Every structure is written in structure tokens, then in C-alpha cells.
Amino acid sequence: MSKRDYYDVLGIAKGSSPDEIKKAYRKKARETHPDVNKAADAENKFKEVQEAYDVLSDTQKRSTYDRFGHEAANQGGFGGSGGFDGFDFGDVFSSFFGGGARENASARANAPRKGQDIHKRMRVNFAEAVTGGEKKIKTQVYEECHVCHGSGAHSKNDVETCSTCRGSGSVIQEQQTIFGRTRTQTTCPKCQGRGKTIRKRCGTCSGDGVVSSEKVVSVKIPAGIDTNQQLRMQGFGHKGVNGGPSGDLYIVFEVEIDDRFERSGDDLIMEIPLSVTEATLGAEIEIPTPYGPVSLKIPAGTQADKTFRLKGKGMPNVRGKTTGDLHVISKIVIPTKLTKEQEKLFEKLADTKLDNNDTSKWDRIKSAFK
Predict the structure, then answer these.
(1) Which of 42, 97, 260, 326 could form a disulfide with 37 if both were Cys (CB 3.0 to 4.6 A apart)?
(2) What stretches of 238-356 adopt beta strand conformation (E)?
């Protein structure tokens, strides 16, 4: 298989400067490195990029390649492998493996880090969701060990400088590859980048620097909260590392259902049964709301599924000062059993004439079936 042009491999023009060549190589190496690119041919493409850079970064090799192309390699024109002209692979891949180029691993390991967050579910009844309130919850948190104050050592004299990295937190590894000898900087495996080791561990936390404890937290329930909405309590999570801030506690709410009401955002919907007499003659009935019973006037001649709106009797908006409405839907209840007296009254009612408007409507309906 014929080789691709080295300039095409790096995606540069033939007259590119050494800086442009190095910049292009960095980009292509990041894109094709097998630890980053999981494609089946990533390793071959990575070798192709390295080979192209090995030639084009060397003035003499590049000159020979510009004159004779790949044929020069077949004739030995490029000579032995010249390595990578002092190019450090750590510079290329450091952004993928733990920070910026030549970043000190010890500084990364010892940098302040925020503690982990905690997620808990809280069940509240419908009334608590309407008015809000306060409820206590138990949670397990990791806090700084009160004996060693987070060092993990039995005493301050038991903290020693790491003998492997000599306190730097990182080690240099060298390896021979087909492209030359490479040097990479990695986190010290003995101290995990801390630069220090512990000779005798704290008996309370076993060297972890943190201990588990149970805390009781008071949670303020926001008025109007709904199922699966959450509340963030800043700083109530696990203890931070190396002086970093504590994590947060997230409360996810679950609101119990009230069979009387159906929720739609901040609005509530409910159905009320009306007898034929109440719907026909009108009535004044008592309606339950989340804030207590209220009186609702039912006009004479109320039809089934008529909606009455009670403004401000819905759910409070959890993020503002507004309150939803309560929508009351009428449901006409037809009696299934009548007393003798009731039957006579309905029969008498059936013999009476409806008002002119209703009669004309009924006549039109009957005529349609003649």
C-alpha cells in the first residue's frame, strides 16, 4: 500500500514553518492516540502521524523528503531514527491525562476539592405542600476526623516525605519505542500525588482523614412544592478535601395525593356532585379548598360539566408570590332509587310544560325523527 504524503498526514501546506508543523502534530497526535481514539485503525494512524512528524521536524530529513519523497526512505535516505527532536509526549497528552503540560501532580492532588453531594427523598403530605413548613431528615455524612484533623496520621510526626517522588507528587517514566525514547510524567503510585506518606495511621479514621456520622437536618419545605422538584441545601453534603468546601444536600420531594384535587401546575381541579334539584333550582353549597371550606352559589339551571373558578384557591407558586386557582366542575347525579312520593313528583313534573325556549328545542329534536 502506498504511503500518504507526510504533509497531508499532518494537514499542512508544503511550505509550513517548524512551529506550524509542531502545532499540527500536537493536534493530530491528540486526535489519533489510541487512549483517546477508540477506532480500530487509531494505532496505525497514530504511528503514521509520528512518522510524518519525525521526518518533517528534522531539517535534513525534510529536505531529502521534499526532493525524493518516500523513495528516500527505501534507499535509507532518512537515516536512523532521530527520536522526536526533544519533543515531550507529556506536552501532547497532558490535557487528557490529568492537567496542563508539565503540571505538578502533587499540586493537583493537594488542591482544595469540593466534597461529594448527597441526594435524599422526602415525602410530604398535600397540606404540607400547600402551606410549606419544616421537617427533619437524617443523613449520613463524611466529616473531617476530629482526632487527626484530616491528616490521617496518628501524630504530626508520622507524616513523612514520600521516598519515591521525594515530595513532588509525580515521577518520570522512560520507555523505548520504535520511534525513540520517550519520557512521561505521571502521578506517584506510592503517595497518589500527595507528596507525603503516613508511617502510622490515625486509629479513629484509619488514615482516611474523614469519619462517617449521622446528622439531623431541618428542611424548610417551600409552599407549592410538587413531586420530583428538589431543594438544594448548600454545604450540607460531605466534607471537602484539603480545605475545599463541603458538598450540597439535594432534597427531592414526593407529595402525597389528595383524592379531592387534581393538580395542573399551580391550579387545582375538583368535581362536585349536584342533585337534579340543586342544578335545576340553584343552591348554595360548601366547597372544600386547601385553605378551608368556602361557600359556592350554584345558579338555577346549571348544566353538567359547568366549571366554576375560585380565584386564588389553588397552589402557591413555588418560585413566586402568585397562587393558582381552584376549578370546580359540576357533575349532575341522577337518582337510581326513588320513593313513591318522589316518583309521583317526577311524574307530575313530566306532565308540566317546559319554558317556551326549551319546548321549541324539544320540538325540533322530535321532528327530526319523524
Answers:
(1) 42
(2) 249-255, 262-264, 267-275, 283-287, 294-298, 307-310, 326-333
Name the packing angle between helices 42-56 and 59-68 (round to 10°). Answer: 100
Q: Which CATH superfamily is domain 262-334 in?
A: Urease metallochaperone UreE, N-terminal domain (2.60.260.20)
Assign residue 343 a region: left if phi > 0, alpha if psi is -120 to 50, beta otherwise? Answer: alpha
- The CATH class given to the 6-87 domain equals mainly alpha
Specify whether the CB–CB gap between 294 and 318 falls below 8 A: no
Domain boundaries, the chain: 6-87, 118-255, 262-334, 341-370
- CA-based nearest residue to 209, from 143, 131, 157, 291: 143
CATH class of 118-255: mainly beta
User: What b/e sequence results for 197-220 when a residue is b if at least 16 CB atoms lie within 10 Å of its CB, and e otherwise?
Assistant: bbeebbeebebebbbeeeeebebe
DSSP state for residue 201 in the 8-state scheme:
B
Cell numbers 518516500: residue: 70
Alpha-carbon separation of residue 243 from 112, 115, 213, 334 (angstroms)? 5, 10, 19, 72
Q: Report the alpha-carbon distance of residue 282 to residue 296 in Å, rounded.
A: 11
CA 169 from chain centre, in angstroms, equals 32
Element (H, E) at 282: none
Q: Tell me the pLDDT tens digit for each residue of 211-256.
A: 888 999 999 999 999 999 999 999 999 988 777 899 999 999 999 9
Q: Note whether 6-87 and 262-334 share their fold.
A: no
Residue 209 CA to residue 307 CA, distance in Å, equals 63
Residue 86, strand partner residues: none
Q: Please check whether residue 267 is in contact with residue 313, taking contact to mean a CB–CB distance below 8 angstroms.
A: no
What local confidence, expressed as pLDDT, does residue 259 receive?
94
Average pLDDT over residues 308-330: 95
Contact between 53 and 84 (Cβ < 8 Å): yes
